[in-house]
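note to self — DONT lose this again. spent like an hour looking for the file last time. sequence + predicted structure for the chain T wanted, 139 res
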Amino acid sequence: MEQETVSKFLENVGELRMGFDLFTKNQKLSNVFITLGALGILGIHHDKRTDKVICFPIPPPSAGTKKIVSVSGAGDCFNSGFLASQLYGHGFEQSVQIGRECAKESLLTVNAVPESLNCIGEKLMENLVEHVHTEHCRH
């Protein structure tokens, strides 16, 4: 690991400790996400089916060839995308990816919550309707 990456990681030790403490003290939690700025996010997930707890890095979203305009709101957009995806019935991994996509959209605009997130919400709703229709037709 590069020295700069180690230094940035160590800057977040307090947040990491708070996240782990929160998770261990509240047995009802399934997920905790700790934002680490340019390092991305550290996720903690309790799979209730297997009773296993996993801790994993979530890399920061890539802006590709586009320029990052502002980091304000990226963490909130990740959380919103993840939660919305979960509420629409998507799996954990897909919800993390949708959260990353929402965070990426936030990085590319001066608005903390970009207008483009409306399209992601509409797409989630379309997928939910399709999923419910498919499940309904199977019975």
